[in-house]
Structure formats: C-alpha cells, structure tokens
TrEMBL record:
The keyword Nucleus does not apply. The keyword Kinase applies. Residues 179-202 are annotated as: Disordered. The gene is PK. This is Similar to TAK1 (TGF-beta-activated kinase). Keywords: Kinase, Transferase.
Length: 297
C-alpha cells in the first residue's frame, strides 16, 4: 500500500487517482516548483485547480521524510474541509493532491496596497487570516511552521484563505500528562527573512505562538504596504540581534497595531492565541465600520 494505508479512507471521499493522472497527461501549466514538489495549474470540470505532486528523491531517507510531510498535509487539509478561510482539498492520489486555485496572494496585495488600503479592508483581511490560523491550531491541531504572505491566498471577493501545509506539524499531547502540546522543531534558515519567529531562529521548539508571530509580521506588511525592514536581510539581522521590530508609523490605526505588537511579543507565552486575535479583530472591525457609517463614508 506504499505507506498510505491510513489515507485510503480519505480516498473514498476524494476519488481522484484516474482523474489526476488524466490531468497531468493533459493541458498543464507549471506554476510552482519547490525543492521537493511541483505545482501545476490544470482544469477540472471547467474550473482551474492546483495539482501538487511530489518529485522522486534520489535519497530514500529524504523520500520517506517528504512522503510523511505530504501525508500530514493531507490529514491537515481534511480536518479543516469546508472552512471558508482554508484552501479546499478536492482530491488526492498517493503522491498527488488537488486543491482549489487562486491567483492572488497576500504578497501581491501588500505591494498593490502601496496606494494604501482602508483600515476596514486591512482589518477584514487580517481577520480572515486569523480565522484560518485558528482553524489550523484548534480543528486540525497543527502548527503551520512556514507562514508567510505567499501562503495566504485571496479569491475574487477578497476572502483570504490559508494555504500550503507541507511543513505543518501535527501537535500531539505531551507524555508528561500536563495537557500541553508537543512542540515542533525549528527549521534551518540559510538567509534571514522577517516571517519566522525569534525562537525559530534560536533553534528552540516551535508552538502555535510561533505562527502568531509570523502572522503579526504579515499584518504589519499589509498595513505598511511593504516588506518589514524593506526586505533587507542585513537590517533584519541587526533588528533580530537586539530583539527589535519594524518601525510603526504613528498614523496607522492604533488599535490594529496594538494587536500586532502583542502578537510579535518576544516571549511566546505572552502572545495571544489565534482565537484571542480573532475576537480582538472582530471588535476592531465592528468599531471601524461604525465609525465609517457615522462619518458618512
């Protein structure tokens, strides 16, 4: 059964083997190629979908590791099926998975936003992203580990969805019996980027709070309409060494930036949970909407 025995029940809900093979044999466009898998844009029942397929690795140990990550992604997607802020899985077949496809990412929204998005739009997009992360943490019991703007997609109606769970870590309950979740291991970083948490760079265990930090940096970028530290690795490295954070423009919405500041707290235990972030953003959204109505906007 090629190590996929426990996924066969999922296949009954997502019967895609023959269809996926036909997709690859037909009209395809390569839209992404990482170190271990390729992503193709294909058509299914008149709609564009993404077909992700693992490459064959020369090293058998690496192949096993990436197969295991692939299985975790499938289980994570299945646990969150139907959530409006999670990219939906449409089918699977061994080393292939088919998901919904959207062309716009948060990264494009950030740079498109150099014209500055209204506060209500920023908070609404942030709320969608936080709801997706809450589902990942609570429903799927997973940590994303690799959260960055490219992993957040936007549909034609402006709805934000969390995507790409290939690096996700499924949390398990600690054997200590204290009800805490087993953390994930930090990932190796060749060059500094603004998205990983300080504990990730320090080689410390990762928890849901690590995702919260990453989401805070994404929220900052959405408000600033630019990458933190202007995308300069040297500025980022200096800031990280002194526990610094990007500079906040005093003209930005103070309530929203207070949420962001709490989310990027240096101490993971002091960062709010995804659920708490959702609650605070809901209140902010209602407040900003009410103010705009009163102002006649």
């Amino acid at each position: 059964m090629n190590g996929y025995g426990y996924l066969y029940d999922l296949r009954a809900r997502y019967p895609f083997c023959t269809i996926a093979q036909n997709m690859l044999a037909g009209n395809t466009t390569l839209v992404g190629n990482g170190r271990v898998r390729d992503v193709y844009l294909v058509e299914y029942e008149g709609r564009k979908v993404a077909l992700k397929t693992l490459r064959n690795m020369d090293d058998s140990r690496s192949q096993r590791v990436h197969l295991e990550k692939h299985k975790r992604e499938i289980l994570t997607l299945d646990a969150m099926r139907g959530h409006r802020n999670i990219v939906g899985m449409l089918g699977l077949c061994d080393t292939m998975v088919v998901t919904e496809y959207y062309t716009t990412s948060f990264l494009r929204a950030i740079f498109r936003g150099r014209m500055e998005l209204p506060d209500l739009a920023v908070v609404s997009m942030a709320l969608d992203a936080a709801r997706g992360l809450q589902a990942l943490h609570e429903t799927a019991g997973s940590i994303h580990v690799d959260l960055k703007p490219q992993q957040l997609l936007i549909d034609d109606d402006g709805r934000v969805m969390l995507n790409d769970f290939n690096s996700a870590h499924i949390m398990s309950i600690s054997q200590a019996g204290d009800g805490t979740a087993c953390p994930a291991q930090s990932t190796k970083r060749n060059l500094p980027t603004p998205w990983p948490s300080p504990e990730n760079y320090a080689g410390e265990p990762l928890t849901p709070a690590s995702d919260i930090y990453s989401l805070a940096m994404i929220f900052f970028s959405l408000m600033a309409a630019s990458l933190p530290y202007e995308g300069n690795p040297e500025l980022l490295a200096r800031a990280m060494s002194r526990q610094g954070r990007p500079e906040i423009d005093p003209s930005w919405h103070k309530g929203f930036m207070k949420v962001v500041q709490d989310m990027w707290h240096q101490t993971p235990q002091k960062r709010p949970s995804a659920k708490r972030v959702v609650v605070r953003l809901q209140l902010l959204q209602a407040e900003i909407y009410s103010e705009s109505v009163q102002a006649g906007q």
